[in-house]
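Predict the holo structure. Ligand: zinc ion.
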Amino acid sequence: MRVKRYPYHTVWLNGRSINRNRVVFEHKLGRRLLPGEEAHHIDHNSLDDRPGNLTPLMRSEHSIETQEWMKRKRDEGKRRLFHLEIGTRSRVQNE
Ligand SMILES: [Zn+2]
């Protein structure tokens, strides 16, 4: 099964489907997004389109931000795995 990596809510405007985050965002800013500007979700939850969760980022900054966030998430995942291993080992030793 193919899972969409970055889901976005879409809304219909004048017969065209557009990302809801763009609409919320442009309303918050009171202007249209500039060319190359994207709506970034501060908590990285692309389904949370509340105005407070959106901030403007240029496409290049946005991709760097996303890569760094994914790296942080991977590192956190490794640390969790490591702790799990330690926990399992100490439980085994206590038996
Ligand atoms: Zn983003």
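Strands lie at 10-13, 16-19, 37-41, 54-58. Confidence is low (pLDDT under 50) at residues 1-5, 86-95.
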